[in-house]
Amino acid sequence: MNKENITSSHVAKLAGVSQSAVSRVFTEGASVSPKMAEKVKKAAAELGYRPNVLARSLITGRSNIIGLVVAYLENQFYPEAIEKLSNSLKNRGYHVLIFMSTLAADNIDQLLEELLDYQVDGIVIASASMSSTLATRCESAGVPVVLFNRNQEDERLSSVTSDNVMGGIKIAKFLIAGGHKKIAHIAGWEDTSTQLDREKGFIAGLHQAGYELYAREKGEYNFEKAQAATRRMFANKDRPDAVFVANDHMAMAVMDVLRFELDIKIPEDVSVIGYDDVTLAAWASFSLTTLRQPSNRMVEETVNILMSHIKDGDDKPRQVTIDGPLIVRKSARIPEGWHE
C-alpha cells in the first residue's frame, strides 16, 4: 500500500480500535489510556502513518498555530522572549510560525496577510506595529492580535509591555541619587512606543528633581549607530557624567566605545544604564546596570490573552503593563545607602 494513501481508518483496523480512538491518540491533550496510545502508535509506525494536521484544521476550524511577526532580532531580548513564548504555547498544544519583517508598515501588513492565509489561530507582533486596516481585517476574521513589547493607539488591539514610563523614572532617580549632574540619553527608534515611553519617564524623573536632559543622541536600537552616537556625544571635553541608553544592546556598544576607544572609565568617569536585562548584561565584561523587562510575566500575559480569546471566546482587548525592577551592577555609580 502507498504510504501516501494510508489513513486513520487503516491504523484503526490494524490496531483493532475505532477511528475516533486513533484521532484521540494524535490529538494533544485528548483523554486516552497509555495502553491504547501504545497500540495505536505501534500500528501507525508499522504503516508509516502521520496525521494530516492541515486537513484536521479544516474540520475543526483550528490550526493550533500562532503566527509571530518579528522585525529585528539583534536585540538579545527578543530571541530569549521568543524561546519562552514558543515553549509556553507548546505546553498548551500550539506551535509558532515565525515571519521575519522589516519595520516598514506595508511590509508588516503584507506578512500579516500571509499569516491569515495560513489560518492561524492568533497573531503576536513583536518589535513592530500594524496598520488600522489590517487590524480591522483580523478583527473580522476573529483572529486575536497581541502586540508584544509594543503598544499603539488602537483600542481593538491587545498589548503587553513592561512599564516603560516608570522604568525611565526609576533610572533618572537612580542617576540623580548617585550625584550626577550632566545626564544624557541615547535613544532608540524615535517613533516606537518603547522609546517614547522610556524617554518620557526619564525626562519626567529628571524634571521632578529640577534637572534638564544634558545631551541626546539617536542610536536607533542599532549597535553601530549607537557606537557613532557615543563618539558624537563624548567628542567634547565637557562631556556627560551619566548616560541612559534605551536598550542593553546599544548600551554594550556605548560601553565598548567609552572604554576601548575613548579611554573613559566606567563608572568612575561616566555611569551607563541600559534597559531590558538580557543575559549578556550580567556578564562580568559588562556588569550592566539596567531596568529588567519581566519577560516571563510578559510572555505569560500574552499567552493568557490569546487563550482567553481562542478557548473562552473573550474578545475584549487588554492593555497590560508590568513593572520591572532596576538591576544594579557595576556600570553605574551606586548611591550611598541606595535601595529601590
List the helices and strands and how they pair.
Elements: H1 8-15, H2 19-25, H3 34-47, H4 53-60, E1 65-70, H5 77-91, E2 95-100, H6 105-117, E3 122-126, H7 132-141, E4 145-148, E5 158-162, H8 164-177, E6 183-187, H9 193-208, E7 215-218, H10 223-233, E8 242-245, H11 248-261, E9 271-276, E10 289-292, H12 295-310, E11 319-322, E12 326-327
Parallel strand pairs: 1-2, 1-3, 3-4, 4-5, 5-11, 6-7, 6-8, 8-9, 9-10
Antiparallel strand pairs: 10-12
- Major sheet description: 6 strands, parallel
Q: Roughly how much helix do the residues carry, as a percent range?
A: 40-55%
Q: Which class of secondary structure composition applies to the elements?
A: alpha/beta
Total number of distinct structural domains: 3
| CATH fold field value of the largest domain | Rossmann fold
Q: Within the largest sheet, what's the order of strands? A: 2-1-3-4-5-11
The topology string of helices and strands comes to HHHHEHEHEHEEHEHEHEHEEHEE
CATH level 1 class label of the largest domain: Alpha Beta
The CATH architecture of the largest domain can be named as: 3-Layer(aba) Sandwich
Shape: elongated
CATH superfamily of the largest domain: Response regulator
- Unreliable stretches (pLDDT < 50, length at least 5) are none
Q: Total number of β-strand segments? A: 12
The radius of gyration is 25 Å
The portion of residues forming beta strands comes to 15-25%
| Tally of individual helices | 12
Distance between the termini: 70 Å
Mean pLDDT: 89
